[in-house]
Amino acid sequence: MIGLQNFNFRLLAGFIFSLTIQLMYGHEVKPPCESHVYKPLSPLCDLCGCSTGSGSFGFGTLGNSNFVGLRYINQNFESRDGIFINSPKSKEVFNTYQLWAQIPVNNSINITVNLPYQNLTRKRVNANTETLRGLGDASAIGWYKVNFYKKESDALTFNTERQPSGHVLQFGLGVKLPTGKFEEALADNVNPGFQVGTGSVDGVFSLGYNYGTNKFGLNTLMTYYVKGENRNDYQFGNQFSYSANFFTAISKANYNIMPFVGISGDMYNKIRQFGETIADTDGNIINTTVGSELAIEKFIFGLNYTLPLSQNIFGGNVTSKNRFSLYVNYAL
Fold first, then answer.
1. Bridge partners (DSSP) listed for residue 239
2. What is the gyration radius of the CA atoms in the chain, in angstroms?
3. Any domain includes 274
4. Which of 48, 57, 125, 133 lies 20 to 30 Å from 175 when distance is taken between CA atoms?
């Protein structure tokens, strides 16, 4: 069943990517509609609340500044079910369903919020399938945006409005709340990320830069997560995440499409329990992503597919296979 799901995801991703290429070659590139503002992809705290959840997921869309929407994320892992090289392996599928939004406060400040629901499954060799379901860890992040403007010309003009240069900086400060349940018994698994929540309050610190023109854009983001200790004296390792996405914009009278390619990564510190570090619980991963967004009036549809380029997670005992994301938003 898992293989069939992955096949369908790849088939859908391939179809949308092919459609994107056809549109790129079949239509003239024009400026995107005025309702789209280029901005960095904002961060999302760990999807499962744990070290294997990737903080390099975006918490926004390529060209939409404010929205409310739904997003589905599928992640696939393979874990060694034992301490030996030839130990049997278990397959894990993390399904996340999110309510998410970006809400404006004023022209310079906005807030992103996220409430996930987790559905996690693990299938061991010659064993029953384990399932975890429940509310995940909610997060809220405040963003301050700094726009840069073109240098004013010495020529006489009656236009008093400053012209944007396309360069933008964003600073983010946020918190992840322990709304998801943490089960200590599951922390002894090879993949401690098999949890719906961390049980801890975590801090989020972000810096984003983007550049956009009428034809293309670049979004970059760096985020550092400071993990708190939960009531079980268990503390997931601090995490540094980064991402960069390059996209182009194709606009027609009734739609706007933006295909993109990107690279992202995460670096994890060791987990601590009772004040002691746990061996083989740190790691790093580098991913590549391809996807596209389609905006029709106020609706934004997005799809992306991610594959690891390099990884070493939990001492090589856990392998990230791929991930897939699909979302629909309504622009505010």
1. 225, 268
2. 21
3. yes
4. 133
Measured between alpha carbons, how far is residue 209 from residues 60, 80, 194, 290 in Å? 14, 39, 33, 20
- φ/ψ (deg, to 5) at 162: -75, 145
Alpha-helix runs per DSSP H in 209-325? none
Considering only 41-50, 253-262, 280-289, which range has the smallest mean pLDDT? 41-50
pLDDT digits (tens, 9 = 90+) for 219-235: 999 999 999 999 999 99
Q: CA-CA distance, 121 to 77, in Å (whole number)?
A: 10
pLDDT in the model for residue 278? 92
Instruction: Give the length of the chain.
Output: 332
CATH number (domain holding residue 83): 2.40.160.40
Tally DSSP H helices, then E strands, for the chain: 1, 17
Residue of 262 and 62 predicted with greater confidence: 262
Sign of CA dihedral 309, 311, 316, 322: negative
User: Is residue 52 a contact partner of residue 281, using CB atoms and an 8 Å limit?
Assistant: no
Q: How far apart are CA 249 and CA 257, in angstroms?
A: 6
Q: If we measure between CA atoms, which residue out of 195, 185, 187, 181 comes closest to residue 278?
A: 187
Greater confidence, 233 or 61?
A: 233
Amino acid at site 94: F
**Residue 332 placed within a domain:** no
- pLDDT for 106-150, tens place per residue? 989 999 999 999 999 999 877 788 999 999 999 999 999 998 988
In a domain, 48, yes or no: yes
Query: Token match 């956009």: residue?
Result: 212
- Looking up tokens 């396309």 gives 166
Contacts of 184 by beta carbon, 8 Å cutoff, 6+ apart:
232, 234
Instruction: Judge whether 113 and 104 are in contact, CB under 8 Å.
Output: no
Count of domains in the chain?
A: 1
Q: Does 41 reside within a domain?
A: yes
Pull the structure tokens for residue 315. Answer: 């001492």
At 170, the pLDDT band (50, 70, 90 cuts) reads very high
Contact 264, 311 (CB under 8 A): no
